[in-house]
Design a protein that fits this description.
This protein has 7 helices and 15 strands. It has 3 domains: about 60 residues, no CATH class; about 140 residues, Sandwich (Jelly Rolls), CATH 2.60.120; about 70 residues, Winged helix-like DNA-binding domain superfamily/Winged helix DNA-binding domain (Arc Repressor Mutant, subunit A, Orthogonal Bundle). Helix 6 crosses helix 7. A hairpin with a 5-residue loop joins strand 1 and strand 2. A 4-stranded antiparallel sheet has the order 2-1-4-3. The chain is an alpha+beta fold. It is globular, with a radius of gyration of 21 Å.
Length: about 270
C-alpha cells in the first residue's frame, strides 16, 4: 500500500499505520482518519485484496507535541513535521544505524529504549547515552556531519519516527522554524556538555543514581527493561563493578533489585547534587 503525503489541518487527524505483508515485512501507510478519538492508537481492519488485515493506526501528533525537543515549535510547525515523518520498528538488539553510515534521518523515540555508543580503536563500546521515549537523537546529521558519529542499537523492542534530512532542510527555509530549531539544538548541546562533566567528575554510585533519576524520575519503585549490563554501559562502568555496587547498596539497605524491579529503600536523590 503506497504512502500518501497529506497536509493536516485543524480538523484532520494524521495517522501512521503499520502492518506486515505476506513476507512479514513492515509496510507503512500515512493517511487521514475521520474518526475522533483521544487515544494515541486505534485498531483498524483494512481490506487488502481478498483478505482483511487487522492493523494498528498510530496517531503521531501527540508524540511530537509532547517531545521536549519540539516544545519550542508552534502548532503549525508540529503539523509540518507530521507530514514528513515515517514510522519504523526496531527489534531488540537490532541496529537502527551504525557509526560511519551515511546519515539521512533524525529520529524521535516513541517507545522502548535505544543505546547510542561509539567503538574505540581497541574494540570497546563506549555508551554515549540511553535514549528514552520522547527524546530526539541523530540531529547532528542535519548540519554538522554527513555520517552518523555513533551507532544506535535497540536495548528493547523500539518504535521511532524518522524525519528525513531533506524534509527538515525544506522546513528550515522558513525563518520562524529555523530560529526555534536552532534554540533546541543549543539546549541539546548543553546536555552533552553536562554528560561529559558527569562522566569525568562523579563516582560510579553517583552516576548510577543520576542515571536512574534521569530515566525514571525520583520514584520509590522503578521498573526497568534494561539489563544490568546495559545500565553499566550507560554509566561508564563494567558489569562487575556495577554488581559490586548493587551488592553494597543492598547490604546497606539503600536499594533492593529483583528482576526488572528496583526498590529505593532510602532517599539517595537528596545527595546527588
Amino acid at each position: 500500500m503506497p504512502a500518501n503525503r497529506v497536509s493536516p489541518s485543524a480538523n484532520q487527524t494524521l495517522f501512521v499505520i503499520q502492518l506486515s505483508n505476506s513476507r512479514k515485512q513492515p509496510i507503512s501507510y500515512r493517511g487521514k482518519n475521520e474518526l475522533r478519538s483521544t487515544d494515541y492508537s486505534t485498531d483498524w481492519k483494512l481490506k487488502l485484496g481478498a483478505g482483511v488485515v487487522k492493523v494498528r493506526a498510530m496517531k503521531i501528533e501527540p508524540y511530537i507535541n509532547q517531545s521536549p525537543f519540539f516544545k519550542g515549535l508552534s502548532v503549525e510547525h508540529h503539523r509540518e513535521l507530521e507530514t514528513i515523518c515515517k514510522l519504523k520498528s526496531v527489534k531488540k538488539r537490532d541496529y537502527l544505524f551504525h557509526e560511519g553510515e551515511k546519515g539521512s534521518n533524525m529520529f524521535l523515540l516513541i517507545d522502548g529504549n535505544l543505546q547510542l555508543h561509539k567503538n574505540t580503536e581497541d574494540g570497546r563500546e563506549v555508551v554515549i547515552r540511553v535514549i528514552k521515549p520522547g527524546e530526539v537523537f541523530a540531529e547532528v546529521v542535519l548540519f554538522e556531519k554527513e555520517r552518523y558519529p555513533v551507532s544506535a542499537r535497540a536495548v528493547t523492542g523500539a518504535t521511532v519516527l524518522s524525519f528525513p534530512k531533506a524534509g527538515i532542510h525544506r522546513l528550515l527555509d522558513e525563518e520562524g522554524f529555523r530560529n526555534d530549531f536552532i534554540a533546541m539544538l543549543m539546549a541539546k548541546q548543553r546536555y552533552l556538555a553536562e554528560r561529559i562533566q558527569e562522566l569525568t567528575t562523579k563516582d560510579v554510585e553517583q552516576r548510577f543514581f543520576t542515571f536512574l533519576r534521569s530515566q525514571y524520575g525520583e520514584k520509590e519503585t522503578i521498573h526497568t527493561p534494561l539489563s544490568k549490563k546495559d545500565i553499566a554501559a550507560a554509566i561508564g562502568t563494567t558489569p562487575e563493578s556495577l554488581s559490586r555496587l548493587i551488592q553494597r547498596l543492598h547490604e546497606d539497605k539503600i536499594i533492593d533489585w529483583k528482576g526488572k524491579e528496583i526498590r529505593i529503600l532510602s532517599s539517595p536523590w537528596t545527595w546527588l547534587e
